[in-house]
Amino acid sequence: MILDISNLHVNVEDQPILKGVNLKINAGEIHAIMGRNGSGKSTLSKVIAGHPAYLVTSGSIKFNNQDLLSIEPEQRARSGVFLGFQYPIEIPGVSNLEFLRVATNSRRQERGEEELDTFEFEDLVNERLKIVQMNPTFLERSVNEGFSGGEKKRNEILQMALLEPTLAILDETDSGLDIDALRIVASGVKKLAKPNTATLLITHYQRLLNEITPDFVHVMSGGRILRTGGGELATKLEESGYDWLDNEQNIKEEEN
Amino acid sequence: MASQNQVGNIISQPYKYGFITDIETEKISKGINEDIIKLISNKKKEPEFLLNFRLKAYKQWLKLEEPDWANLGYSPIDYQELIYYAAPKDNHKKASLDEVDPKLLETFNKLGIPLNEQKRLSNVAVDAVFDSVSIATTYKEKLAEHGVIFCSMSEAVNEFPDLIKLYLGSVVPSSDNYFAALNSAVFSDGSFVFVPKGVNCPMELSSYFRINSGDTGQFERTLIVAEEGSSVSYLEGCTAPMFDTNTLHAAVVELIALDDSSIKYSTVQNWYAGNEKGVGGIYNFVTKRGQCKGKRSKISWSQVETGSAITWKYPSCILLGERSVGEFYSVALTNNYQKADTGTKMIHVGANTSSTIVSKGISAGHSSNSYRGLVQMGPNASGARNYSQCDSMLIGDKAAANTYPYIRSQQPVSNIEHEASTCRISEDQLFYLQSRGIGFEEAVSMMVSGFCRDVFNQLPMEFAAEADKLLALKLEGSVG
User: Is A250 among the domain residues?
Assistant: First the structure.
């Protein structure tokens, strides 16, 4: 099992946001988490990656059978956890190429591979650029600085292509993309999915799931996973919206 | 886990240059008066004109007031408690490096400045100054083949008195300010560079200043003259042992650029900064000024200021010759309780002169970092242009950054641009880099060095990497 989340409770500034999340992801699977704004989807992705603003009050996250919560975010990344950001961060002055090289080498080092020098890395990055159909001039710019929304998302997938994660979490990667960019991103994600890796898509909308068919769809509401099903659950959400969930949530709260 | 506060905490770096060399030192008695000045001049076997220069400066110093306008605030200095001359006992300049005290060579080895033939830096000539005296200058003969003079100031006053008489004090007169007057009265050693007409100096020149004695002030004096059509690039570095008392360093640097010549002057300043509570460290009061005397001449200052408890320093350009160019590129990093008040003055006198100012201040801990700069367009400076950019980066929430730009223009046909920004390393930026496998400290230093990139690009190649490493070292520490 790649990811095993058990009864996870998380606070932000003393406010409970996640209230008992359970989720298991096996190798070769693609999962999707859907839900409204504020349901806790993005929080879950950031907690897995180790964002310092979130406090885990109880529960556990295991990654490849290893306790994830006790290690630093950089170590999680080196071990193969990747988070594609909903809003990729701009870092003025730091060259994108240098950033990608340092990141790639830290992952390679962890896997016992040789570090790449600047020339070897350029060969690798130029090959991976094709997956996201990016122009090499992006490499010369500062990390995400002045990138359009679509360019930022493609830069995220480029990072994923270089880091070759075991678990790729893509947080609203489809938001802000036009249909062409969405197809490029989706085909990139599909190419990078391997039998020994897993993908967790976090999204509002069906449209990404039309491009990438998930094995499991989870619906989050009020800090919990309310429902789990196959691809048909996404279709149902697309047709009838999230309102029907409210009744189910009320029932669940009464049970507790 | 890393948070904004911890970014502040990690910057308690060890100072690896804090050792003391155990060497027999000759010191004169403490205090300053005419007899002390005569004694210094006598020890250095100086010609009479220089003794007169010193005595005149001393009289001017007595009339001047210590400046208090800078954003510094430090405990008063008792000038009668300081020692104004200290030198290794056997301080006769040696004909060959083999004769120099091995302890001194070892000291410079430890500082990363090997002086002996086999190990010395290739393509960089070094003048090594220990307390009040220069102990060795490398590559002198090779430079002499090109007509370039590179020697200690003490040698220059005896060997090239006419040049010294002509240029010493011509850019920074001894009455210029309190610390310049003090330096003019008691200056000990420093470097002299003279590049004759049409010569491009074939190698980088560098002076390395080392304070070893805790109770002794260091007052070095540097003079660089570039004749018509010549060019030279010069770098100074400095370190000092860790003492819990404050040591005074008051230097004067004068640059003179004649027609079509260019001088590039770079500084990597890493004096001891005091401990994490702000005890000890160097008081660094420096007057640096260049005169673009000739047409189309150029003077470029680059500085990386990371050390000293107190920094008071404004490397400036007087742009006299028409179409002359002045540049100032600065990175100033303060941490703990360090205080820096630094910047530049660009005085446009001639027509069509231009200047560029790029200043990057990084404040961490409880430190305070001020940029203070003057851009002045004189009545004859028609068509003059200036561009200034002053950026501040705050690390943690207890540090301060200030910008004091002064602009004076008496010239309607001139162009002055000023841009300023302040930023903070955000938790989200750090998390983003960390989530890609980049360690916390490396993430901080990547962002700091990205912030400083415009300035590092201006440093001589050999030293740009050094400066980057130095900043990383300053930001090194344990992650909480």
Answer: no
User: Would the CB atoms of A91 and B450 count as touching at under 8 Å?
Assistant: yes
B340: left (phi over 0), alpha (psi -120 to 50) or beta: beta
If DSSP codes are grouped into helix, strand and coil, which group holds residue B119? coil
- B266 vs B247: CA distance, rounded Å: 23
State which residue of chain A sits closest to B456, comparing Cα positions: A93
Task: With respect to residue A256, please indicate whether it lies within any of the assigned structural domains.
Answer: no
3-state DSSP assignment of residue A160: helix
Chain B: residue whose CA lies nearest to A74: B437
Scanning A114-143 for CB atoms below 8 A from B yields 142
CATH code at position A117 = 3.40.50.300
Q: Please tell me the distance from the alpha carbon of residue B152 to that of residue B191, in angstroms, as a whole number.
A: 4
Q: Could you report the predicted ipTM of this complex, rounded to two decimals?
A: 0.94
Tokens of A40: 């806790």
Residue pair A177/A149 in contact by the 8 Å Cβ criterion: yes
Answer whether B439 sits within 8 Å of A106, measured CB to CB.
yes
B200 three-class SS: strand
- DSSP for B238-263, written as a single string: EE----SSEEEEEEEEEEEE-TT-EE
Identify the CA nearest to B334 among candidates B427, B286, B396: B396
Q: How far apart are CA B439 and CA B10, in angstroms?
A: 13
Q: How far apart are CA B91 and CA B100, in angstroms?
A: 9
B388 to A186, B417, B458: CA distances (angstroms): 46, 6, 16
Its domain, for residue A134, covers: 3-243
> Which residues fall within 8 angstroms of residue B75, CB to CB, at 6 or more apart?
B246
Confidence of residue B8 (pLDDT cuts 50, 70, 90): very low
Chain-wide mean pLDDT for chain B? 86
pLDDT digits (tens, 9 = 90+) for B161-191: 999 999 999 999 999 999 999 999 999 888 9
Across B138-280, the runs of DSSP E, i.e. the strands, are 149-152, 191-195, 204-210, 221-226, 231-239, 246-257, 262-269
Helix B48-63 with B178-186: angle, nearest 10 deg: 150
Using CA atoms, how far residue A236 sits from A174, A182, A230, B119, in Å, is 19, 22, 11, 75
Cβ contact (<8 Å) for A53 and B440? no
Of B269, B275, B264, residue with least CA distance to B307: B269
| A241 or B361, higher pLDDT | B361
What SS3 state is found at B305? Answer: strand
Domain borders along chain B are: 4-474
Integer CA distances (angstroms), B296 to A122, B224, B226, B317, in order: 41, 18, 13, 13
Name the one residue in this structure whose structure tokens are 């303060």.
B334
Cβ pair A186, A212 in contact under 8 A: yes
Residues A78 and A71: their CA atoms lie apart, in Å, by 11
pTM above 0.90, yes or no: no
Number of domains in chain A: 1
CB-based contact B434 A73, cutoff 8 Å: yes
Chain A residues lying within 8 Å of B452, measured CB to CB = 93
